[in-house]
Amino acid sequence: xxxxxxxxxxxxxxxxxxxxxxxxxxxxxxxxxxxxxxxxxxxxxxxxxxxxxxxxxxxxxxxxxxxxxxxxxxxxxxxxxxxxxxxxxxxxxxxxxxxxxxxxxxxxxxxxxxxxxxxxxxxxxxxxxxxxxxxxxxxxxxxxxxxxxxxxxxxxxxxxxxxxxxxxxxxxxxxxxxxxxxxxxxxxxxxxxxxxxxxxxxxxxxxxxxxxxxxxxxxxxxxxxxxxxxxxxxxxxxxxxxxxxxxxxxxxxxxxxxxxxxxxxxxxxxxxxxxxxxxxxxxxxxxxxxxxxxxxxxxxxxxxxxxxxxxxxxxxxxxxxxxxxxxxxxxxxxxxxxxxxxxxxxxxxxxxxxxxxxxxxxxxxxxxxxxxxxxxxxxxxxxxxxxxxxxxxxxxxxxxxxxxxxxxxxxxxxxxxxxxxxxxxxxxxxxxxxxxxxxxxxxxxxxxxxxxxxxxxxxxxxxxxxxxxxxxxxxxxxxxxxxxxxxxxxxxxxxxxxxxxxxxxxxxxxxxxxxxxxxxxxxxxxxxxxxxxxxxxxxxxxxxxxxxxxxxxxxxxxxxxxxxxxxxxxxxxxxxxxxxxxxxxxxxxxxxxxxxxxxxxxxxxxxxxxxxxxxxxxxxxxxxxxxxxxxxxxxx
Length: 636
What we know:
The structure is a single chain. By secondary structure, this protein is an alpha+beta fold. It is 42% helix and 24% strand. Strand 3 and strand 4 form a beta hairpin. Helix 9 runs antiparallel to helix 10, helix 12 runs antiparallel to helix 14 and helix 17 runs parallel beside helix 18.
């Protein structure tokens, strides 16, 4: 092929480019130019070949181009500059030029390739393209079948797609520019391991309870991420959300079913233990009946009955704590007491072929958490350990004060404040896990068990509870060498006991002539409480219903000091009765009692959290302490 044929071919290829383009040899003369460059100079391509820049540019601009070419050759990098080309009337028009050095295989300079662009024309084209791009992006966001909402740093809405309109009930024209909190109410879901607050400077996925414009509510899964400008400074956030109400309900049902499945496994052992306790009570009661007050074993019989009743009460409370749906009721407590209180239940759930070993460090700092949920953590970890030891083994539960250490090789749940934590570790002698499996154990629905024996929610529930409590978890496991899961809980900053604990530990006030309105629909319990109170100097008005209590109150000419009432009663419940009594006597102290657990009472909205509450069964000392403490609190 002849040289000029090659030049024509190269020029033809360059003609396909929208921008001006050329090639110069090492002397600075044009050897190849395209039609766009010729049109830019208002020349024919044949007029440009073999000429240099001094023929088309002002001397100063030609010198700048030549200097830029030399700099590109030395640096072996692309160089850009702006030069002016003359136009009609003696004016000049600036163009943007980019110059790239060209070398042969041995590194010798062959020349320079260049492109030029008229910024005024490019700006017009760019504006058109920008408009098209923005419109395309808006249409693309509207096509997403999830709500897409963007906010600035003042939480004002900057983007709101069509699905956000249908999901939240606000039109885009109504939402843009308004503060998001004026449009949407979002609350954390108590007890939900996936419900975590949105962090301002990081991406996070959470489940939140959303209230729409019309007042209806739904559970939304929201992924929120920060938006950064070109300078790296955060300019706002963007969130993608969808309605997961049905999924949330299913997960809750599965979690509850998981608990009840475990309760079913415990039923045989519980029945065995409870029958033993009843045997003790019945036998010693018969001894008392036959022997009478003068029998030598009178006190021993009473002690045996009392101890058996206490153990039966503890057993039922453990089962209720395990089987009920949890609400967050955090309090300051000793972690060791929680573990010791549930140890017998753990032993039954592990089975006879697995040994439970406790190693509890004495003098632990207090933690602030929900004791019922910590029991759930222990039971889930014990169940996980049991399933890892199909042939039996040992489970070690240990408490200590420690620092989570990233350098230890343990896999942690995520970021956490540095410092000392109260730690709870559960170690098994089971089959262990490889690294990939251990990294996924806290993921919802991840399980190594078959579908009939595992839901994959046990450890994800543990993860959620611990994160809600401000802690973290680590996993250390090796195949064939067992697994250790360690929960780190923050040390409580406030050592103050909860209201319930303060009442339970307070001393009964001295004997006083206080009038107590006692309302209980169960006659034996009514007689028992009345007997205890009268024996310790209280005047008592008895009633078996709320209506009867109000009738007695209206007939009495003496204001009552305290209302002691059952919560769940036919007709008028305890909360409704207390409202009526306080309307008549606003200074009256109120103490509620129930055979339901405190969490169950609060969850059913029978009482507000923090209300003074006495759990049945109770001893005489517990009743007197609760009554005296409530009277002292009101009179303080």
